[in-house]
Amino acid sequence: GENVEQHPSTLSVQEGDSAVIKCTYSDSASNYFPWYKQELGKGPQLIIDIRSNVGEKKDQRIAVTLNKTAKHFSLHITETQPEDSAVYFCAASSHYNTDKLIFGTGTRLQVFP
Amino acid sequence: DSGVTQTPKHLITATGQRVTLRCSPRSGDLSVYWYQQSLDQGLQFLIHYYNGEERAKGNILERFSAQQFPDLHSELNLSSLELGDSALYFCASSPLPLSGGGVHDTQYFGPGTRLTVL
Q1: Contact A103 B4 (CB under 8 A)
Q2: A14 to chain B nearest CA, in Å?
Q3: Who has the most CB within 10 Å: A10, A36, B22, B56?
Q4: Average pLDDT over residues A27-32
């Protein structure tokens, strides 16, 4: 069945360092890959997404890369700040009749000042 | 603020009871998705409604049901509640119609309803 694996489960970095979170998906028909940030007590918030027709997308300090052949995609956060501390989820979606999202298990990122 | 609202924020009830969770999508959004977030299962897709019609079911128990009303708000009904149903329940909305081959649209999540079954 559809599955998304996410690593690492926890990540601690010093403020200013970079953080990388990796995901692998199983469904080769997946063609949309969003990343969500979830802070304590809040719902997931979309931070960046990528569609299968591009290999990389950047938005200020955040970037996502996609390797369709290997079926993996990664989130890169540069110049991390304490407010980046949260749980990050990757997801994959393919549409046959629905755009349901299959989520990874989450990465808890802690940025220490 | 995503523009998606969910009520109530917290719900505490007993086993065997029935509850209703409500979701109002962003203005103009036609699709509503329900997800369950638990510690051991992560974020799991439950069900998708588009413009009042059920489009897909995920890992949704038979004790659970949902509907989307003409004003596009949606309700998730959970009955015969068990301890294991304790979780966060999120709805998400997106605007574009499905085409079976079209472009995915962003799903915007609400703040969730925390359900505790005692």
Answers
A1: no
A2: 27
A3: A36
A4: 86
